[in-house]
Write a structure and sequence with these properties.
With 132 residues, the chain is α+β, with helices and mostly antiparallel strands. It has two helices and eleven strands; from the N terminus they run ααβββββββββββ. The chain folds into two domains: 29 residues; 94 residues, Rieske [2Fe-2S] iron-sulphur domain (Rieske Iron-sulfur Protein). The longest helix has 28 residues. It binds FE2/S2 (inorganic) cluster. The site of FE2/S2 (inorganic) cluster has 12 residues, from loops.
């Protein structure tokens, strides 16, 4: 009986060690970039050079310009309303915060910039990845 308990205990310890090893191996092999969720795929030709594409459902704006394309979360950093994109800039309809095309705060009450989302270049299109 004691021998059976010992072999059962040994089996459980071996199983836990094996599962822990597999978990660590998976964490080591899968990079953080590969695990990020793709929010959008956008054809580069569709991005207006001095404008923005707004994806209201995803709450994301893909902004073209003289520099590189940027993707901003349209979740206001004040209390989470959806920021509106206009030719004049980005404004929050709830309490009036204003942001520039890079997401920097121009006017409060928001005191943090809009979250800039990672972008991957995939030839003729870009993909916007979930931040964080
Ligand atoms: S939620 Fe945007 S300014 Fe308050």
């Amino acid at each position: 009986m004691e021998k059976l308990d010992r072999s059962r205990r040994q089996f459980i310890i071996t199983l836990i060690s094996l599962l822990s090893g597999l978990f660590l191996l998976r964490k080591f092999l899968v990079t953080g970039k590969a695990r990020k969720k793709v929010l959008l795929s956008v054809a580069k030709a569709d991005i207006p050079p001095l404008g923005a594409l707004v994806y209201r459902q995803s709450r994301v704006a893909v902004i073209g310009g003289e520099g590189p394309v940027t993707a901003l979360s349209l979740v206001c950093t004040h209390l989470g309303c959806t920021v509106t994109v206009t030719p004049q800039g980005l404004t929050c309809p709830c309490h009036g915060s204003a942001f520039d095309r890079q997401g920097r705060v121009l006017k409060g009450p928001a005191d943090r910039p809009l979250v800039r989302l990672p972008i991957e270049d995939r030839g003729d299109h870009i993909v916007v990845l979930a931040g964080g």
